[in-house]
Amino acid sequence: GLSADADTSRINIVIPNKSSATLPQKVDLNRAEAWLLQALPGIGEGRARMIIDYRTRNGPFRSVDDLGKIEGFGQSTVDRVRDYASVGD
To answer: Long-range contacts for 19-28 (Cβ within 8 Å, ≥24 apart)?
Structure first.
């Protein structure tokens, strides 16, 4: 809150419009370390290790949908992480 002697004439509140708002960064499935993969919804330590093992054996993911190729990853898991993950270049 404001203190009793605060000069409110110097407060400038800026609300960015959607076109200038910064979009959140996504976790790159091809580059992220285990700790970062674990930040994705539904991805714990075990699934993070599975993602890393899969990309080590099979090469880079071509799309987030490729997560569905990992045994134990269903469509619901893929859908949960879709908005938070990318596959980079």
So the answer is: 24/84, 26/83, 26/84, 26/85, 26/86, 27/84, 27/85, 27/86, 28/85, 28/86, 28/87, 28/88
DSSP for residue 13: -
pTM: 0.73
Alpha-carbon distance 33 to 59, whole Å? 15
Rank 2-6, 13-17, 19-23 by mean pLDDT and report only the highest. 2-6
Instruction: Tell me the two tokens of residue 13.
Output: 């509140």
**Token representation of residue 80:** 């949960």
Which amino acid is located at 85 in the chain? A
Chain Cα centroid distance, residue 43: 11
